[in-house]
Amino acid sequence: MHHADDPTPPPARKAARDAGRDPDALTICVAAPAYVGDDPAHARDQCRWFGGTVGNHVADLVAKYGEHSDMVPEELTAYIKGRRLKALGVDQFSVYAMHDDREGTIDVYGTHVIPSFH
């Protein structure tokens, strides 16, 4: 049974148990593109590819596991919507720097963004 105070997605917990692993030992990693700059429209254009990539990945999962299955729960969007990463139990956040200013974005993350979390 899934409890509201347990941030680990229920399918991940079940898969761990089914594999004979401890669900409490799971770590969750989230990844997304990031761009730092003064032009929001340009930044969006540089990261726009990510939505298509994620959409294709989700489509592959749906094709593999079925449109209405326990492996691709319809509650997923509602479960994630409105929650902060920490509240979801995210242990690691990875940044995709696949655009025209990789070095600049990584520099800003290293000097300003990451230190703000300590």
TrEMBL record:
Keywords: Oxidoreductase. It comes from the Bacteria. One of its GO terms (molecular function) is oxidoreductase activity, acting on paired donors, with incorporation or reduction of molecular oxygen. Gene3D superfamilies: Luciferase-like domain. The keyword Oxidoreductase applies. InterPro entries: F420-G6PD/mer, Luciferase-like_sf. Residues 1-21 are annotated as: Disordered. SUPFAM superfamilies: Bacterial luciferase-like (SSF51679). This is Uncharacterized protein. It comes from Streptomyces termitum.
